[in-house]
Design goal:
This protein is an alpha/beta fold and about 325 residues long. The chain folds into 2 domains: about 5-165, 3-Layer(aba) Sandwich (Rossmann fold); about 170-320, no CATH class. Helices cover about 55% and strands about 10% of the residues. A 5-stranded parallel β-sheet has the order 2-3-4-1-5, with helices on one face. Helix 5 links the parallel strand 3 and strand 4 (about 140-145). Helix 4 (about 90-100) runs parallel beside helix 5 (about 125-135) and helix 10 (about 210-230) runs antiparallel to helix 11. The chain is elongated, with a radius of gyration of 22 Å. The termini are far apart. Bound molecules: zinc ion. Zinc ion (ZN) binds near residues 54, 56, 60, 64 and 67.
Amino acid sequence: MNSFLDTFYGNRTAKEALVLYKQDGRFPHAILLEGEPGCGRKTFARYLACAVECGEESGPCGRCLTCRKILSGIHPDVVLIDGAGCSRSFHIDEIRRLKSGVYIRPNEAERKIYILAEAQNMTVQAQNALLKVLEEPPAGVMFLLTCDNRARLLDTILSRVTVIPLEPLTPEECRRALGERYPGEPAQRLDWLCRVFGGNLGRCVAGVEDEKVRSQAERTARLLEKISRGDDYGLLTELSALEGSRGELDSCLEQLHRACSAAYVSAWRGERAGEDSFSLAPLQCKKILAIIEKAAEFSRQNMGLSLLITWLSAELQLAAR
Ligand SMILES: [Zn+2]
């Protein structure tokens, strides 16, 4: 595969699709990139845009002026419309603005590309407005949509796009990617970030760069260690520190769930996530996942934090035996 594409880790199938389109010289006029936040949907959309616009036959090269402009977000013919932020913020006005520009010819490239990020946040009215232009796109216009879950889009939209799913990395790929990106970071920290975030590179990067995310992830890593060691007292102490904030507890539960899901998959594959990997048998992971899901449900029902933590700690102690 071309060396520029290698800089997007994992996701071989998605990259192969891109290469095939480039070789054929024919890209679908609307592509939907589906994947959880942090798995590189917006980055991959830019790579796709490079593949469309780059003049090199074996491209995208990632080095020419066109590619560099696209990658740094300043290419006039690659327009990012971002509905990120609060849900349902992607309003029909955005689509109206898009439609007023869509028939104007590209400035300097062959094609005009619209990246519609977080398309699941589009209102129904916005989706219906987009539909008309997706049905009959002007020549030379391409749409790249990203979303977290295709089920959140109208069927009529889905029937007009080609879906390319993006997957989180395996723990090994994620660890390698982090090591290359942050050669100065302590190896152990990168190990447990991969573990806590289960191969989601975007979240791991946030864990390196954002102090708050890091300290939350550190706590999750300590909790996992205590669960797998059967350290009941340590487990209760760590969990008790969360009594002050439901938000903190909820995000800790989410991280624990993610880490245990990844550990479950690794355990079945017979892999180890890293040097200091905590070890839980698949059955234990499954039990713990069920407990975390139950705890998250209790939290949504507003169960008192101290009662919830006492329950959680007792259940986790039992499950780890
Ligand atoms: Zn190029």
